[in-house]
Inverse folding.
């Protein structure tokens, strides 16, 4: 085992994954377990803490290491004011001092970030954004999130919302983009209501009366004209939403993650369109697919201590 090892944990609604990386990003250990279920939120919370502790203990035993730095990614965030978890879809974490409790269980400091930030860090350090100064990483999945990394450092910001572009309004609205839908955040016309998987499906239903999920739209667009049109609307909306990010941050590279990042044609089609919206005579920003797929979250969690 090399001198420096980093443990990353990805806590999801169904699985908890653990990884151990050396300083070069080589993986030395990886395993996963089911996220514990329990009759009450308090019991589930305790079971999650115990499960993570067991995973870390077993990992360190198998690798003959100890007191390894631990980072964890969760689908939620920690309030800077209270250190309590908010906006988590593993709801037993909400209102809990999770990082402090885990730190107590593991007898060491623990770094914690939301899963979009872990994804961004992973792709910026040794993924699709490797070697680039400014990397904006985007999740296009059941929700739309993002994270921003400059010089391999995660940008957090005083409100801890850096990269949350999914709840900005869709820019440069056209008639095609109406009617606006209400987002779970309470606003209307958020980017997420167009570009998330459920948003893409809902827009296709509203505008073309096609009841298809995003996967079906993509697989049927070669033979279904309306599915193709809906895809073209999606490309235009993604292009203008990313253009508004480029106008503010001007990143070297934008890395896509989440289920919709698997639509390979986006990497050609979106850059053909975004020049219309970017305030520049040419656009040198790269649009790339993530390198590590579902593993980016757990790798980025390990890199929180790098
Ligand atoms: Zn919203």
């Amino acid at each position: 085992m090399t001198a420096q090892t980093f443990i990353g944990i990805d806590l999801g609604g169904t699985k908890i994954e653990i990884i151990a990386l050396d300083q070069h990003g080589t993986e030395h250990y990886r395993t996963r377990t089911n996220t514990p279920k329990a009759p009450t939120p308090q019991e589930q919370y305790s079971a999650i803490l115990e499960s993570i502790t067991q995973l870390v203990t077993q990992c360190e035993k198998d690798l003959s290491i100890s007191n390894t730095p631990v980072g964890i990614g969760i689908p939620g965030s920690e309030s800077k004011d209270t250190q309590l978890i908010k906006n988590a879809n593993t709801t037993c974490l909400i209102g809990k001092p999770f990082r402090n409790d885990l730190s107590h269980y593991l007898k060491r400091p623990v770094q914690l970030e939301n899963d979009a930030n872990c994804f961004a860090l992973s792709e910026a350090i040794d993924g699709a954004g490797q070697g680039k100064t400014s990397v904006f990483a985007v999740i296009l999945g059941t929700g739309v999130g993002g994270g921003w990394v400059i010089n391999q450092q995660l940008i957090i910001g005083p409100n801890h919302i850096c990269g949350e572009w999914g709840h900005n309004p869709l820019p440069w609205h056209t008639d095609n983009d109406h009617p606006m839908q209400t987002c779970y955040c309470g606003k209307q016309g958020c980017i997420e209501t167009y570009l998330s998987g459920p948003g893409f499906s809902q827009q296709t239903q509203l505008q073309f009366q096609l009841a298809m999920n995003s996967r079906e739209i993509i697989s049927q667009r070669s033979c279904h004209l309306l599915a193709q049109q809906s895809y073209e609307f999606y490309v235009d909306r993604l292009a203008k939403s990313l253009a508004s990010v480029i106008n503010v941050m001007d990143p070297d590279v934008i890395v896509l993650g989440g289920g919709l990042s698997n639509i390979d044609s986006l990497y050609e089609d979106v850059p053909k369109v975004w020049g219309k919206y970017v305030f520049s005579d040419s656009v040198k920003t790269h649009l790339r697919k993530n390198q590590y797929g579902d593993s980016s979250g757990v790798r980025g969690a390990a890199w929180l201590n790098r």
The chain has two domains: 5-118+295-303, 129-290. The two ends are 17 Å apart (CA to CA). The pocket of zinc ion is lined by residues 167, 183, 185, 187, 190, 192 (CB under 6 Å).
